[in-house]
Amino acid sequence: MKLNPNSLSQILARRILNYGAISLHEFMSEALNHPEYGYYTKSNPIGRSGDFITAPEISQMFGELIGVWCASTWIKIGKPNSFALMELGPGRGTLIVDALRALKALPECLKAMELHFVEINPQLKKSQEKLLSDYRVIWHKSLDDIPQKPTIFIANEFFDALPIEQLFFRNKKWYRRKVDLADKKYKSEPKFIFTEEVSSLSDLDRQFVVDSKCLNGSVFEFSPDSRDAITKISKHINYYNGAALIVDYGYHEPNTNSTLQAIQRHRYVDVLNEPGCSDLTAHVDFRALSSVAIINGVSCWGPISQGSFLRRLGIETRSEKLSVSASDATKESIKRAKQRLINEDQMGTLFKVMVLGQKSSYPFPGFLSNELSETA
Ligand code: SAH
């Protein structure tokens, strides 16, 4: 086999040979975001021909209902006459196009709105440019320059794409998961393996690990990048007003198992194989996100299940309306898409929805007044 000395495997192998095993976070960051060979910088991962499919790609109803949510949220936050709608990781742009169609029902809101996208994938950015050619969009590579105005953030399947660290507990000690070379004298493609390093918990780690049951073999996952993003969003909402809608697959109860996974062409593959060629993700720890948000002074609603959220926003009525003049085949596909989004055994329960907003007593659209999380 002819070796490409610049492939990501070779780059990471040389780094490990020179400096020793790297953290899981570093491995994942490079595999996902390396400027040339990272998964999210070189490929178009979404859709049937890609590696995974997301809710807005399943049905237009998803983006439309989020458009309705944005319109009602804009009213709730006091109808600011200039605000930013900032989507994190907009994928192909499908969600926002469907949302904008629904938002046409409230022209005042559309008039006050400036569109901002945070995207690192140049190919997806091209699809977004094409799909949104009728709108003025401002692109950002990170959350470092959020516009200085009230902002409604939307993040569907964004947080699961951010790199994580894993700590695990064995014989009364904490270990940090690392990635090493199986054989330092590799001849062809290097093979990576997991190793571990005894680790003391930092105060920050301790704060999040405290209520997970520390049994032998317990794995504790955390995402420094997610904490950082939630801190920036929360501070922004606190200062400038706004709200954030976070939809993702994940958990709220303490979790003590590894949720790290790699997906290629809709199949699970080995996490350490061919970095940069598969989608590495981890389930989102909603409890950690809400703690960080609350510490930073905002209110946190939920998480509730995606099924409840979409039902409360009216997915049943919307699907009936779309079906009225549809052919039998289309009616059937609308019904199947709706079920996929809300049924418990499909995306309805695993996917959860959380909203951040300024401290207030009223619930955001889709939430009930007793769904406010008050403690960090
Ligand atoms: N929201 C879309 C796409 C989800 S896939 C949908 O529901 O279809 C994850 C998205 O986040 C992609 O657009 C990806 O390119 C983007 N992304 C992943 N990591 C990112 C990062 N660190 N910064 C900005 N965008 C990122």
Percent of residues in beta strands: 15-25%
Overall structural class, as computed from helix and strand content, comes to alpha/beta
**What portion of residues is helical?**
25-40%
- Bound ions, cofactors and other small molecules, one mention each: S-adenosyl-L-homocysteine
For the residues shown, what is the average pLDDT?
A: 92
Work out the number of β strands: 17
Oligomer: single chain
The N- to C-terminal Cα distance equals 53 Å
Rg, rounded, reads 21 Å
Low-confidence stretches: none
Biggest sheet character: 9 strands, mixed
Number of helices: 15
* Form type: globular
How do the helices and strands line up, and which of them pair or pack?
Elements: H1 8-19, E1 22-23, H2 24-33, H3 39-42, H4 55-58, H5 60-76, E2 83-88, H6 94-103, H7 107-112, E3 113-118, H8 122-131, E4 137-140, E5 151-156, E6 165-170, E7 173-181, E8 192-198, H9 203-209, E9 219-222, H10 224-240, E10 242-251, E11 261-264, E12 267-269, E13 279-281, E14 284-285, H11 286-295, E15 299-305, H12 306-313, H13 315-323, H14 328-342, H15 344-348, E16 351-357, E17 372-373
Parallel strand pairs: 2-3, 2-5, 3-4, 5-10, 10-14
Antiparallel strand pairs: 1-7, 6-7, 6-9, 7-8, 10-16, 11-12, 11-13, 15-16, 15-17
Helix pairs in contact: 5-6, 10-11, 13-14
The chain binds S-adenosyl-L-homocysteine.
S-adenosyl-L-homocysteine is lined by residues 33, 40, 46, 54, 56-57, 89-91, 95, 118-121, 124, 156-158, 161.
